[in-house]
Fold this protein.
Amino acid sequence: MTCRSILKRLGLKLPLLREFIREHEQLRAAHAQALVELQTVSAELDQLQATLLRLSEGSAHPGYCHCCHQRTFFLLEGEWLRDQYLCAHCRSIPRQRHLHYVLDTHFPGWEKQIIHESSPTIDFIARWCERYSSSQYFEGVASGEAVNGVRCENLERLSFADDSIDIFITQDVLEHVFHPELAAREICRALKPGGAHVFTVPRQPWLPASEARARLSATGIEYLKDADYHGNPVGDGRALVTWDYGADFERLIERWSGMTTTVYADVNRALGIDGELREVFVSRKPQ
Ligand SMILES: [Zn+2]
């Protein structure tokens, strides 16, 4: 029996059958699309349910995040708030949100200024700033040169011209340089008059005086205390801690940089700002 005779017996015509097949394929595609959307909605519902559970348990609360500039939930993932108090949207931590809060509050219009950030581990500043540049430190590479497209800058010997930057940002970087006195002076040199170094650093208030943990000698690194490392976005992923900063840090940084330093130590849970070593320092270059 031919196809044509089967169609005739069924009272169908070829164009009608083609129409049926086309509709069937459209329905199948729509079904596949609906399945994908269902999976997305299901994942969002799971996340919402998890957040609601955390809200009821008190391990999450609503607020506004200055890193991602939106309403969010802040998640308390442990007792060490410095690293375990996260924005549900952007996963920022308190010191990062605090730094953005200081920028938004004390530097209106900062997004349009010339900003350089040394050794960023996250892109929160880059997302909002039009004239942003960043650099990493690569051992043995001169400041201003590039490694795989990434600019190298040694904080102790910057390649920037004098008076060329509005805001210089370092986030937990100064505890990794051997000569912070040179770094502070160099940052001041590169800043425009009236410009500012906005930074975080783990200043330990229980330590009366800052102490070097390691120093460079003619034979290499000399360890004055046990070797301690933090994460590093380049190299072998480790950054040696060279200094433990203590209660005298503001006096030291002012002496080293020649700038006046203000310390912000806000606590504001509605903005996700709380926890250990969250201070933000602002050193202003005189006009
Ligand atoms: Zn956020």
